């Protein structure tokens, strides 16, 4: 009788260890799946181009995309022109940057991503 109880205890112990390993493996598999999804999203070239477009659009809010001399009353003045120089240009720049960032996360629907990208290009 002693041997059956020790065998039952051993089997229960092995069963608990096996279940624990499976649960950890499932968590690891879920994490691995989400990581590979993110990797495949970044791996596509259009994702990189959209990220560059968003970063550069946000950069034009502070960095000038035109600097030079402008004639004001027949006098040359040095002007720096950024997206913050006018409100309509600022609104368009922020809209393009945000739309580019949103479009990155539409990587599963490439047709919709292309349509939105072309509409941003027209703007």
Overview in brief:
With 123 residues, the chain is mainly alpha-helical. It has four helices and two strands, in the order H-H-E-E-H-H. The chain is 72% helix and 11% strand.
Overview of the structural elements:
- Helix content is 72%, strand content 11%.
- It has four helices and two strands; from the N terminus they run ααββαα.
- The protein has a two-stranded antiparallel sheet.
- The mean pLDDT is 76.
- It has helices at 2-43, 45-59, 87-104, 110-122; strands spanning 66-72, 75-81.
- The longest helix is centred in the N-terminal third of the chain and has 42 residues, at 2-43.
- The protein is mostly helical and 123 residues long.
- The protein is elongated.
- Helix 2 (45-59) runs antiparallel to helix 3 and helix 3 packs antiparallel against helix 4.
Q: Which SSEs are present, and which pair or pack?
A:
Layout: H1 2-43, H2 45-59, E1 66-72, E2 75-81, H3 87-104, H4 110-122
Antiparallel strand pairs: 1-2
Helix pairs in contact: 2-3, 3-4
Distinctive features:
elongated; 123 residues; 2 strands; mainly alpha
How much helical structure, as a percent, in the residues?
over 70%
Shape: elongated
What's the number of helices? Answer: 4
The number of E-state strands comes to: 2
Q: Report low-confidence residues grouped into runs of 5 or more.
A: none
What's the helix-strand series? HHEEHH
CA-based gyration radius: 29 Å
Structural class: mainly alpha
Biggest sheet record: 2 strands, antiparallel
* β-sheet strand percentage: 5-15%
**Cα distance, first to last residue?**
83 Å
| Strand ordering within the main sheet | 1-2
Mean pLDDT: 76
């Amino acid at each position: 009788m002693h041997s059956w109880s020790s065998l039952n205890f051993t089997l229960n112990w092995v069963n608990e260890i096996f279940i624990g390993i499976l649960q950890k493996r499932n968590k690891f598999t879920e994490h691995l799946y989400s990581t590979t999804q993110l990797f495949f999203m970044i791996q596509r070239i259009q994702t990189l181009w959209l990220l560059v477009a968003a970063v550069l659009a946000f950069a034009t809010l502070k960095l000038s995309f035109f600097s030079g001399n402008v004639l004001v009353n027949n006098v040359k003045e040095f002007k720096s022109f950024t997206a913050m120089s006018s409100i309509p240009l600022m609104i368009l720049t922020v809209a393009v940057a945000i739309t580019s960032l949103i479009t990155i996360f539409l990587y599963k629907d490439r047709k919709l991503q292309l349509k939105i990208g072309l509409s941003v290009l027209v703007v």
